[in-house]
Amino acid sequence: MILTIRDWYLSRTRREQLLILLMLAIALPLLAWLLVVRPLNGAYDSALRDHLEAVDRHGRVLALADAAKSAPSRPVAASNADLQLIVTEAASQAGITLQGTNPNGPNAIDISVTGGRAGALTQWLAQFEAHGLSVQQLSMAPLPDGTVNMSARLARRS
Fold this sequence. Notes:
With 158 residues, the protein is an alpha+beta fold. The chain is 55% helix and 22% strand.
């Protein structure tokens, strides 16, 4: 193949050879710029923009977390409020998705959570002690992904 190209090039006149060399001198850098430099520059600009957006989102999340930590908690007295409302509101504030809540008489409620972190769930249940509720029953079953299924019964202290 190289011999064929060389024979073709040598069969041209001196003027044609110079024009072919000039064409290659212009075309090769242009192709290198179009096929290599420009795509890499675009990818770099896109990665930089994505990184700056991620840093900005991270800063906003940290600011929201600091604001949430410094916000005063609003304890609800369990003696005169609906248990289902107390548990549901506390779960939404803690970011826990309740699978189900079933009243168990006027002073108790059964709750279930699927796929929660054990530490977060026990900490969430512990906060009810300060509000006049006690955990009467608790069962947790581990899941393969490291989370747990939990069911518990909360009741007002008598």
